[in-house]
Amino acid sequence: MAGRTVTRADLCEVVYQKVGLSRTESAALVELVLSEMCDCLARGETVKLSSFGSFIVRDKGERVGRNPKTGIEVPIDPRRVMVFKPSNVLRARINGIEVEDEA
Amino acid sequence: MIKSELVLLIAEQNPHLYQRDVENIVNAILDEITRALARGDRVELRGFGAFSVKKRDARVGRNPRTGETVSVAEKMIPVFKTGKEMRQRLNGAAPTSRSRGAARARA
Questions:
Q1: Per the CB < 8 Å rule, is B28 touching A45?
Q2: Residue A93 and residue A64 share a domain
Q3: What is the mean pLDDT of each run of 10 residues along chain A (103 residues)?
Q4: Per its UniProt record, what NCBIfam families does this chain match (chain A) (predicted)?
Q5: How distant is the Cα of A73 from the closest Cα of chain B, in angstroms?
Q6: A9, A89, B23, B68: which could form a disulfide with A51 (CB 3.0–4.6 Å)?
């Protein structure tokens, strides 16, 4: 595996290269895109990004878990989780298949 | 929220940008994440989550309707793990200005 980790800094660089904005502004916009997505999800709303995937918020009920090391039962409180459902386009691209974007 | 709504929301906060620029920005971000995953890289966005890829071995599947066996080739699948701060926010914890700033400084 390549094993490199891409971070915000890399995304900012790409935005800077592709859109004619300053580095500072590119960074601020990358941050804004992420924070708008976070805010939306924090409200419990789904974020659907066509040809990429969807982030969905799910409510998990209370259940009894078990500490795998000690075997002691512990209650797991109801909680909200976020799941990512990759689009078919993303799945295909990761496997080296280029696909036409669906609008 | 869908992509066009996200674009609109950001364009409203940046009246000096064309909507098309904002669209390009959003697409550039998503495209770079996709290309990183296609290379087998990990994408880590503090405060949001991390994307990575996992290999699924080739297997013999079955068409559930006809019962025919079909071979399924080996493939890579994208996986997403929600970040710690995001997980807390989903469960009602307000984002602290400190952790937001820290996330930015680290990235």
A1: no
A2: yes
A3: 84 93 95 96 95 96 93 92 96 85 50
A4: himA (TIGR00987), PRK00285.1 (NF001401)
A5: 23
A6: A89
**Domain extent listing, chain B:** 1-40, 42-97
Chain A closest-CA separation from residue B42 CA (Å): 5
Sign of CA dihedral B30, B36, B42, B46: negative
Whether the CB-CB separation of B100 and B47 falls below 8 Å is answered with: yes
How many CB pairs lie under 8 A apart between chains A and B? 158
Q: Which pair of tokens denotes residue B44? A: 């880590």
Q: Do A52 and B44 touch (CB under 8 A)?
A: no
Average pLDDT on B70-94 reads 92
CATH homologous superfamily of B42-97: IHF-like DNA-binding proteins (4.10.520.10)
Query: Which of B6, B16, B51, B88 to mutate: most A Cβ within 10 Å?
Result: B6
ipTM of the complex: 0.87
Tell which residue, B85, B91, B81, has the closest CA to residue B43: B81
The parent domain of residue A15 ranges over 7-43
Nearest to A52 by CA among A83, A90, A93, A95: A90
pLDDT in tens, A5-25: 999 999 999 999 998 899 999
